[in-house]
């Protein structure tokens, strides 16, 4: 049963939306913005459910006919819009407007949710802008974006901002372990994500545990300066299919080097690879903090090359060379 109170970690957003429901001052348009994985989509759906709820409280009751319809995907007055390919196109916005024109004879509330609002083409954004300027009542728009500044300024000015903040890793770790996630894997996941949704997605990825183990081995080999051992570790990643998600590999490797800096600074409670603490304590001072920062920068640079369509294996080979050179 989807309710706002069940969505941990976004107290500010929840309070803003509850106040709107409680006071009856629901805006015609909201902009949910914040880092990926912070629960924006889940909150949008929970808020939409509460808007439809016939109990009239500050959250969905979960028991009325409208709530049951929502839970079973039978709410005809909810429309969800997502990019068609790389962007949201003007044809999609026009279709949205037509849908509401057809349904405009009813008196009940209507809600539409636009995911990745920053991907709207200029034409689509301008078309939506007209829709926002002349809202049908009672219609509520919920726009979702990871990057608020990438949304057209005129749209931002016509929506109520609802910020979603990164959740503290410690808080996420407590929740995930309570849900049954393996502590070591959960610890890595929370430091790779800004929110619970993102951390859960990481934990559900195939072979996450194996990837973590191989990254530990690669991280250790990378500071021995034995090129053959590093190449063997890297080849094992791709041979076993663990290299299918190179960005995850690189992010985990960057955390390994960051742990060295954390140990040097005496922040052992922030170490991600806590099961490797004994090894880290023996090798953290093999390089200066500047040296470990350089390793992290090399890792990020490899990620940039992969995003620029350089083959993953080639990018990793270049990374190994850079790590060897220090």
UniProtKB/TrEMBL annotation:
Gene3D superfamilies of this UniProt entry?
P-loop containing nucleotide triphosphate hydrolases
Transferase found in the keyword field = yes
> Which gene name belongs to this protein?
holB
Task: Give the enzyme's main class according to its UniProt record, as a single word.
Answer: transferase
Keyword list (alphabetical) reads: Nucleotidyltransferase, Transferase
| Annotated SUPFAM superfamilies | P-loop containing nucleoside triphosphate hydrolases
Q: Which organism is the protein's source?
A: Paenibacillus thailandensis
Entries under NCBIfam families matching the protein:
holB
Q: What is this protein called?
A: DNA polymerase III subunit delta
Keyword field contains Nucleus: no
> Which Gene Ontology MF annotations are present?
DNA-directed DNA polymerase activity
Domain of life, per lineage: Bacteria
Instruction: State the EC number(s).
Output: 2.7.7.7
């Amino acid at each position: 049963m989807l309710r706002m109170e069940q969505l941990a970690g976004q107290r500010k957003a929840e309070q803003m939306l509850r106040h709107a429901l409680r006071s009856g001052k629901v805006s015609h348009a909201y902009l949910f913005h914040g880092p990926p994985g912070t629960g924006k989509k889940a909150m949008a759906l929970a808020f939409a459910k509460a808007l439809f709820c016939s109990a009239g409280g500050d959250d969905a009751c979960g028991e009325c006919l409208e709530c049951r319809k929502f839970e079973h995907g039978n709410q005809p007055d909810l429309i969800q819009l997502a990019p068609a390919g790389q962007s949201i196109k003007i044809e999609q916005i026009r279709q949205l407007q037509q849908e509401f024109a057809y349904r405009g004879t009813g008196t009940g509330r209507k809600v539409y949710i636009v995911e990745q609002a920053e991907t709207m083409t200029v034409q689509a954004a301008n078309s939506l802008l007209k829709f926002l300027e002349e809202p049908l009542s009672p219609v509520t728009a919920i726009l979702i974006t990871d990057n608020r500044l990438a949304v057209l300024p005129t749209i931002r000015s016509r929506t109520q901002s609802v910020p979603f903040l990164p959740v503290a890793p410690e808080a996420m770790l407590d929740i995930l372990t309570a849900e049954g996630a393996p502590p070591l894997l959960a610890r890595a996941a929370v430091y790779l994500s800004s929110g619970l949704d993102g951390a859960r997605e990481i934990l559900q990825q195939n072979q996450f545990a194996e990837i973590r183990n191989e990254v530990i081995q690669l991280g250790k080999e990378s500071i021995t300066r034995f090129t053959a051992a590093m190449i063997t570790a890297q080849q094992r990643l791709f041979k076993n299919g663990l290299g299918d998600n190179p960005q995850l590999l690189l992010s985990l490797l960057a955390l390994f080097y960051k742990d060295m800096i954390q140990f040097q600074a005496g922040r052992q409670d922030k170490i991600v690879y806590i099961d490797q603490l004994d090894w880290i304590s023996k090798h953290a001072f093999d390089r200066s903090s500047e040296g470990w920062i350089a390793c992290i920068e090399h890792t990020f640079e490899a990620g940039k090359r992969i995003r620029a369509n350089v083959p993953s294996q080639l990018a990793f080979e270049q990374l190994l060379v850079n790590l060897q050179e220090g």
